[in-house]
């Protein structure tokens, strides 16, 4: 009898984890988005644990002119028929190009402020919607695994179609992880990378989400990572930016918030320490998992200007 109860409980946990993974990785057609774990009350946390989250497909209704009057839309061909919606603002063929990649459940306009800051520095910019987000095709995410193919496609497009002296890749959170995986798994060779709030492993970042819900992370986090990978054909336990980072030989600027509870500073340091090339880590002590430009404009602008000028 006891064995049957344990077996039934284990099967139930796996079923819940499978459904949660599907909800986290498949964007819904609409409805209210589940609020952040930190803001959920007790009953809401119980409901989410039983039914999963609802994350509507990230959309944007803006126009390229929001970035700059001369900005234009591009469609970048991705792998397996994926089409990546992008905005491109050219400041001249002799200028460096910075390609931007957003975070989980976001889309390209979440980085408009950062893109405008680089325009002010004289760089050209390109904002890319990952598959499943904004104007791109599909309705799913893999938290940086298959998005690494989108990074490779965007850089390949820029090298072939756009004439710039240097190409830098800028990524926030999932976007940063996708950049590191693109370098490691797809052999992309940018002239430099700028990474904000990068996590060291998918398992750790899922564990932190459980802790934010004020529930034990084990074994839920492990089951969620396992089933998420199974649904999309990858091993979630091997999705580790701290491992990918050893393949980075170009100059790298890492920026991280000292109060980030989603990705702890010690985890970002693991990524930083693994990078093989010239590197700098800038910490914003009063920031969490959020835009550093919004909270520390002068420090952020000085860091990126110094990086661009030195490479």
Features:
311 residues, alpha/beta, Rossmann fold, 2 domains, 11 helices, globular
The number of domains is 2
CATH topology of the largest domain: Rossmann fold
The number of strands is 8
Query: In terms of per-residue confidence, which ranges show pLDDT below 50 for 5 or more consecutive residues?
Result: none
Give the SSE string: HHEEEHEHEHEHHHEHEHH
Biggest sheet: strand arrangement: 1-2-4-3-5-6-7-8
CATH structural class of the largest domain? Alpha Beta
Radius of gyration: 19 Å
Distance between the termini: 67 Å
Q: What is the name of the CATH superfamily of the largest domain? A: Alpha/Beta hydrolase fold, catalytic domain
Main β-sheet, in a few words?
8 strands, mixed
The chain-level structural class is alpha/beta
The helical percent reads 40-55%
Task: Please render the helix and strand layout as text.
Blueprint: H1 2-25, H2 42-51, E1 72-77, E2 83-89, E3 97-101, H3 112-120, E4 124-128, H4 147-161, E5 167-172, H5 174-186, E6 192-196, H6 202-212, H7 220-232, H8 241-244, E7 252-257, H9 265-274, E8 279-284, H10 292-295, H11 297-310
Parallel strand pairs: 3-4, 3-5, 5-6, 6-7, 7-8
Antiparallel strand pairs: 1-2, 2-4
Can you walk through the features of this model?
The model has no long low-confidence stretch (mean pLDDT 94). α4 crosses α5. Helices cover 41% and strands 15% of the residues. The protein has two domains: 88 residues, no CATH class; 210 residues, Alpha/Beta hydrolase fold, catalytic domain (Rossmann fold, 3-Layer(aba) Sandwich), CATH 3.40.50. The protein is α/β, with parallel strands linked by helices. It is globular. The chain is built from eleven helices and eight strands. An eight-stranded mixed β-sheet has the order 1-2-4-3-5-6-7-8, with helices on both faces. The termini are far apart. 46% of the residues are buried.
